[in-house]
Structures are given as structure tokens and as C-alpha cells.
Amino acid sequence: MPADLVGPKTPLELYRIAKKTGMWDPESIPVAEDLSDWQRLNADQREQLLRICALFYEGEVSVADTLAWWLIAMPEADRRVFLATQIFEEVKHADFFAHYFRHVLGDVDTRSYLNPLYRAVLVDGLRAHGEDIGRAILAANGSGPHADGGKSGAPSPISNHDLDRALGIIEGTLAASGYDYFEEMLGTRGIFQRLLEGIRLVRADEGRHIVHGMDYLRRKLTAHPEYKELVAELFYEESMKSNARAEYIFERNGFGLDRERMIALSMEHLAQRSHEIGLT
Length: 280
Ligand SMILES: [Fe+2]
Ligand SMILES: [Fe+2]
Description:
With 280 residues, the protein is mainly α. The chain has one domain: Ribonucleotide Reductase, subunit A. Helices cover 70% and strands 0% of the residues. It contains nine helices and no strands. Helix 5 (116-139) packs antiparallel against helix 6 and helix 6 packs antiparallel against helix 7 (193-223). The protein is globular and about 55 Å long. The model has no long low-confidence stretch (mean pLDDT 90). One fe (ii) ion binds at residues 63, 90, 171, 206, 209.
């Protein structure tokens, strides 16, 4: 975890950190310097790297689109302020991967890399959550989802919604595992330095998103312990899908990653998130 995120942080503190450290420009990273590394990869290595980059790009686009719904429905003004930086950052992350495809990996149909297991969680699931929130907003009283700025503490249309836990799984476990893959494939070999530079900046931004998301979820579960069982079930179901998801990444294991080790790291992320929200 970056040093600036150690200890509890309020949404406004996270917003201030985002203003200072989140304003990097993907297009200023000279990614074309990685071309010689890309040209040296064999077919299986290329396929493995393409799968992970395509999944990241699709996930970033999808999260950015869905977060807009969450911001609109969020009853707490400070969290809306922070979420504005998060949406910007997710767009910026998609921008980074698009920039990387354009200059290094080539013209790739990233959608074709979404196998059913990833499409379900990254695209279809998030879209359904967003649409649910939209319907909840429309069904709320005519004064809108947070007409009092969240001051009354009254339940909002999203108080029992599960978008937060879905985002927690995507950002806190799937993406976190993705960074481990990049480090293991590329960092340990000292190759693709510009890709890693961008990934490390993305990861620093995501650290704030996770701190905020886990704090929101922990507070929600403290106020509504009746939701704990549902969240625990979801986390358990996700742990059961880890093997099948990893299978897709290991289908053509050009980089010779250690399957058991990578799955263990992914389980560690899930356990850490469970702890942060007070499940364990
Ligand atoms: Fe992101
Ligand atoms: Fe994020």
C-alpha cells in the first residue's frame, strides 16, 4: 500500500491525495520504448500478455461507466466528491491501456478476449447493477436520491444495493491479482518497463479506490449487520471462481507463471478485503 494511504482516510482526504498524485497523463508515458520487448516475445507469451491487457482495458471502461450511476445515487456529499476523482481515474486507466494498444500491442479486438466468466463479472454484472441503481433512483421520491445532501441519514436508494461489493471484488481482488501477474511476468524479467510504469501508477490510484470502497462497505455492514451473510456468501462464491478464472490466463502460459502461487496471491487479496470490511 502506498505510504500516503497508511491509516484511515476520510473521503475528502482521499480526494486531496487524488488531486496531488492522481494527475498523471497516460499519453506522456513513452510506451513505444517497449516495442523491442514485444517483438522478442513468442506467440504464447504475446497471447498471455494480450489477454491480461484486454481484460484490464474492458474492465476499466466498464467500471468508469458504472461508477457514474453510483456517484449520482450516493447520499453522502463527501463521497460524491471522491467518486468524481475515481471516475476520472478509471477513464484515465482505460486511456492508458488504449494508448498502449495503439503504440505497442497493435489493433486488437479487446472485446473478443472477454470469455464468459470475465464478461459476467466485468461487463454484464456491472451494467445490471448500474441499471438497478438507475431504476431505484427513478422509483425514489420526486425529490431525488439525496435531496438533503445526505444530512438526514435517511436510507438512500442504494443503501442495500450490492454494487459496492461487486466493485470491491473487481478492484480489490481481480485487478489486484492482475497487477501481480504483470509484476511476475515482466517485473521479474526487467522487461516492458513503460507498461510497468503505467501499471504502477494505475495501482496507486486503485489503492485510493479500494480504501474508499472498503471503508464504505465496512460502515454499511456495521450499520446493517443483516447484510453480512450475503456479502460473506458473495466473497465465498468469488473464491470458488478463482481457479476457473486463472485457467483462462494459464491456457497459454507463455511466461511460465506458477499457477498455484498466483491463485494463492489472489486468495490473499480476497482475505485482506474480507478483513477490511469486518467479515473476519
Ligand atoms: Fe482503474
Ligand atoms: Fe478503481
